[in-house]
């Protein structure tokens, strides 16, 4: 399953995780928003090309 930004529909994203945030940052220069990731979707990061 390929990630798609829920705000702009872009497919370029960078996984991000720290102590308080887990999700994907949209790399579209017109968007740049952060998409929170559900626990079960995190496993897909290892198998998809974001």
Beta-strand residue percentage: 25-35%
Share of helix, binned: under 10%
Largest β sheet strand count, sense and barrel closure:
3 strands, antiparallel
Element string (H = helix, E = strand)? EEEH
Number of helices: 1
- Uncertain spans, ≥5 residues at pLDDT below 50? none
Average pLDDT reading: 81
Number of strands: 3
Class per helix and strand makeup: mainly beta
What is the fold's blueprint, element by element?
Elements: E1 13-17, E2 22-26, E3 34-36, H1 39-42
Antiparallel strand pairs: 1-2, 2-3
Q: Brief description of this entry?
A:
The protein is mainly β and 50 residues long.
Sum up the structure in keywords.
single chain, mainly beta, 3 strands, globular
How would you characterize the overall build of this protein?
It contains one helix and three strands. By secondary structure, it is mainly β. The chain is 8% helix and 26% strand. The chain is globular. The chain starts with 12 loop residues before the first strand and ends in an 8-residue tail after the last helix. It has one helix at residues 39-42, and strands at residues 13-17, 22-26, 34-36. The protein has a three-stranded antiparallel β-sheet with strand order 1-2-3, with no helix packed on it. The protein has a domain at 16-46.
């Amino acid at each position: 399953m390929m990630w798609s930004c829920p705000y702009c529909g872009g497919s370029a994203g960078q996984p991000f995780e720290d102590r308080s945030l887990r999700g994907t940052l949209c790399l579209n220069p017109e968007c740049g928003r952060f998409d929170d990731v559900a626990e079960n979707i995190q496993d897909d990061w290892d198998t998809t090309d974001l």
